[in-house]
């Protein structure tokens, strides 16, 4: 069974997200709403990582080696400025959506295994992660025209 | 001075108890006997009292309430009776000013407007119109907002337009949209005539809308008085009359409302039939509020469980309820989420759309409703949905411009973001009309820094020199109420006409004329090469606006200047179906949530994430109201060791905004001459502070020094009125917004003025002398003021 790998992937990515949101919050604290919302979304990822913990432990032995994660390449460190902010939100969006894809896949596996706990965890993650993703999209959209078109003085 | 009553001493006047209906009482105040009376309405708060302007020899000499007006039945409050004297003030701006060699100097209109046009064109050339921002008001007339909206959206095509309404009324609009699909107040002031219970939530109505409060006082003095629940951290005039007063901690509005809803649902005092037929989301709401039993609410909010139960009993069993909501909710943590819980209360009990049942998501300013309707804030005119192509196309057709000219490709930029773009340098011209951000915005040191930026070209359009004009590159002298004709709409959708009574002073021009002039000089054209804006008078602008509202919730098509001048206030919608206006919206329980009708697809209450059209389609509420819950999120700044107290800011009965008008009335000024800091008896004892001592209040963002006023507030909390700035006293730092935070509600984007962490300390005696004010007189004055 490879399911443990996917569980581990989601679990680790979720933990990475806790930090990633914090990094972006700190780098762009001049954009007050970004700072505050990123901190809120970081706390959501924290909760999701926590509810994942028991399932991750249960499937621990299925997991032989650490999977590759998007967070390894994206968002190593955040940058300053409005273009950088757009790029950072974009990176967060990709990571968050990585979680969503993994979750969809996991939920299928969980359903096939009739693992109710796993399915319930997946649903919770899906719900909150979708909210994270929507916020990132909304915020990118509102920043895009000004960032792309208007020159800095 | 000839006055029917002394409204300074006796704010609400003698009681005229209900006899079936609300009796007429005409309040009047004149300096001389007028030659004529001119029809108008008051612009000193959102109540919209009908009034006549007394004129003699071309000057305003007084006002009187209009007896036949549906809003006030002749009454006026202290601001309405006194503030008209500002029109005659000798320090009105009468000529345009242009900054030359660092100083503002008189100029001609041609010079001023040409400079603005040249700057606009230069910026557009380099950065498109995304380099331009407009920050307007809640105090112009609807004809002016609509003109500004059209020139911004179809002329320039910039999404950067908002009003100071973002600070006062944005959450009202947002909460109505969340629950009912569009803006628009469901109820009517007449609901107060019969209602069994009233909820005032974060709304010190007795001080803000004094005439509306008279209506309630007269109910209390008549047969079958209503029960009143007040939710407010302070012991206000309003709270004094409460059957139950819930004095909560700052930032805990959501837990308290969740607690009340939970008790009501638990007790079964809900209208299951109504919920089933007309709402969606009940089960989720129930789940969220069920986590808030009274004991937990008490722990978080400080409201005793017993009191919460009493409040829930009143609100859960009354046969009719009127709820009013204002800044205590809008300007605090989770503003939209908390305001929505009031809508939920009415929805789950089916108390909406009929006599005695109303929700007033109050506005602060007299014409704020029109800023929202006409597209001078972030919204599209006529409550259209900028995410709905069909709606945008309607406007493109009406204005005869290409669809993509109208900035629907980006969410409208809210005021806080406009200021941020100006700060970061990508908005290069900021045109401020009818508002004074250098006193009213949060975190003033930051606002001053932005206004001072060399690369930001600042245009300020106002009637007086203000703390903001000081930083302008161009100042345009504006005509105000009484000097121009136009219409405006109050909280219960009543539209009044205000006729021009006198000429403006010097070369001052109406905001309408200024916007039309700009539009002409910019040569905005439609698709066929005709001038984009073809109206030249207020009445023509009103006719154009009517066309824009056809078929929308705020339908004005049944009104005309003639009809508005015959009577005294008409509620929208006014059209073929409702030729005399409609008291209630949603009488049939069908809301504006249909996908083709709604003003927005909605937002996540916690993050502000926008719901997409696709997602909305899936939900398809099709006319059902949304019941949306939210769990508690603690405020971002809370008292700690360094800043151990909560600050909250607010208003006092004698002043409006930054006192540009009310501060020029000697009587209003004398009644409330200066700011103060209100602290509890306990904190006064702890810090060794006596009444009138000068106290320095410090936050992470700034400092103010104010005389102390002791009592009437919970321990741990300090209150400072926000009206006082520097135009008439720059001897000390005293504007409350020196202390407040830059942050805002995720949905409505309204900034939070109702909490910040501060410390207090007593000024040294030496400082007291420097301030040069006699403590004794100050103490006396303070005593006259509200506790
Ligand atoms: S209640 Fe408001 S509108 Fe009425 S007189 Fe007072 S300030 Fe004016």
Describe the protein:
The complex is a heterodimer of chains A (153) and B (787). The radius of gyration of chain A is 17 Å and the shape is elongated. Chain A contains 5 helices and no strands. Chain A is an all-alpha fold and 153 residues long. Chain A has a single domain, classed as Ferritin (Up-down Bundle). Chain B is globular, with a radius of gyration of 25 Å. The longest helix of chain B has 19 residues, at 109-127. The model of chain B has no long low-confidence stretch (mean pLDDT 93). In chain B, β3 (36-41) and β4 (50-56) form a beta hairpin. Chain B has a 7-stranded mixed β-sheet, sandwiched between helices. In chain B, strands 24-26-25-28-23-27 form a 6-stranded mixed β-sheet. Chain B has 787 residues and is an alpha/beta fold. Chain B has 4 domains: 2-88, N-terminal domain of TfIIb; 97-168 and 367-571, 3-Layer(aba) Sandwich (Rossmann fold), CATH 3.40.50; 171-362, Dimethylsulfoxide Reductase, domain 2; 645-772, Beta Barrel (Barwin-like endoglucanases), CATH 2.40.40.20. Helix content of chain B is 32%, strand content 16%. The chains are: A mainly alpha (153), B alpha/beta (787). The complex binds iron/sulfur cluster. Iron/sulfur cluster is lined by residues 42, 44-45, 47-49, 72, 76-77, 79-80, 209-211 of chain B. The site of iron/sulfur cluster has 14 residues of chain B, from α1 and α7.
